[in-house]
């Protein structure tokens, strides 16, 4: 089985930090990720700098990243202005988020879920005309911090509606880390049935120690792209306690021991996690940098 690990530390990882990280450090994080073998990287977010100050230097980051054959840079986009910026900055793919509940959607994007779907349709058409790869992410697909449970029927109805714009990829996001493997299997199976032409991707947080179990459940159900953040940093600034992306290095260790091919060197990612902790001034949550890989005999 071949699996793509999509690195999100430069965007989803850093957006939740209280201190502004230097542009040069962000670029170096991306360079180190590429050196380790990661080939899809969510590098930036094109949002208003007052909303997410950590992403205010998106253009400067994209101007400084290496352009390497086979490496695809993604940018998070919320509206037409964001898409204009993304295209001018030279991203290879866009990620548009549709939030599963109105309350969280208002807090995160300033619109209802229905308005978010319409925005996605508009952005998807423009991006397709420009030749960009298009991912739509359904956020809070496993639960909302404000409205509570989100039914599988609600999520799958959203899948049906966003699939009308023919996305290249549909991602299901456990934004606050409340998902469990049984729900993952249900939503992946339902998404595959409703949108058979779209690649399936999952974004998990390990807030309650279910992220890695959910990742394996997603692969068993047919997903082949998993988001992860070096060091396990990150979260959503608009959701209480939405911390702890699954760590790229810890995910790689598990996949490697299972014989799953990713093409990524977990030792280099682990070293980057330790380096990232120095940049942030605090140890990262990932465990591989502390425990090391599987111990050699003797």
Q: Please, could you describe this protein's structure?
A:
With 298 residues, the protein is of the alpha/beta class. It has one domain: TIM Barrel (Alpha-Beta Barrel). Helix content is 42%, strand content 16%. The chain is built from twelve helices and eight strands. An eight-stranded parallel barrel has the order 1-2-3-4-5-6-7-8, surrounded by eight helices. Helix 7 (152-163) packs parallel to helix 8 (181-194), helix 8 runs parallel beside helix 9 (211-221) and helix 10 (248-257) packs antiparallel against helix 11.
Look at the structure and give the mean pLDDT.
95
- CATH first level: which class? Alpha Beta
> Poorly predicted ranges (pLDDT <50, ≥5 residues)?
none
Strand segment count:
8
Shape annotation: globular
Helix content: 40-55%
Determine the strand fraction and express it as a percent band: 15-25%
Q: How widely separated are the two ends?
A: 31 Å
CATH topology: TIM Barrel
> What summary fits the major beta sheet?
8 strands, parallel, barrel
Tally of helical segments: 12
Cα radius of gyration in angstroms: 18 Å
Arrangement of strands in the largest sheet: 1-2-3-4-5-6-7-8
CATH superfamily: Aldolase class I
In N-to-C order, the SSE pattern is EHHEHEHEHHEHEHEHEHHH
Please identify the structural class as seen in this structure.
alpha/beta
CATH architecture annotation name = Alpha-Beta Barrel
Query: How many structural domains does the protein architecture include?
Result: 1
């Amino acid at each position: 089985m071949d699996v793509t690990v999509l690195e999100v530390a430069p965007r989803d990882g850093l957006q939740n930090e209280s201190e502004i990280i230097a542009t040069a450090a962000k670029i170096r994080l991306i360079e180190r990720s590429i050196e380790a073998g990661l080939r899809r990287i969510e590098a930036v977010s094109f949002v208003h700098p007052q909303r997410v100050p950590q992403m205010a230097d998106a253009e400067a980051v994209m101007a400084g990243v290496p352009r390497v054959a086979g490496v695809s840079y993604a940018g998070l986009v919320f509206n037409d202005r964001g898409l204009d910026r993304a295209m001018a900055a030279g991203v290879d793919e866009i990620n548009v988020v549709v939030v599963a509940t109105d309350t969280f959607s208002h807090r995160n994007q300033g619109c209802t879920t229905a308005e978010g779907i319409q925005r996605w349709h508009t952005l998807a058409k423009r991006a397709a005309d420009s030749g960009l790869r298009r991912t739509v992410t359904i956020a809070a697909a496993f639960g909302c911090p404000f409205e509570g449970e989100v039914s599988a029927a609600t999520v799958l109805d959203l899948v049906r509606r966003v699939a009308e714009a023919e996305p290249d990829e549909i991602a299901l996001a456990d934004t606050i880390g409340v998902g469990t493997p049984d729900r993952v299997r249900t939503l992946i199976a339902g998404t595959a049935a409703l949108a058979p032409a779209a690649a399936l991707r999952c974004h998990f947080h390990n807030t309650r120690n279910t992220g890695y179990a959910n990742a394996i459940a997603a692969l068993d159900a047919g997903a082949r792209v998993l988001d992860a953040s070096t060091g396990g940093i990150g979260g959503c600034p608009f959701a209480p306690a939405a911390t702890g992306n699954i760590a790229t290095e810890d995910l790689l260790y598990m996949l490697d021991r299972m014989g799953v091919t990713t093409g990524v060197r977990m030792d280099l990612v682990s070293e980057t996690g330790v380096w990232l902790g120095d940049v942030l001034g605090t140890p990262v949550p990932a465990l591989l940098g502390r425990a090391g890989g599987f111990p050699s005999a003797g």
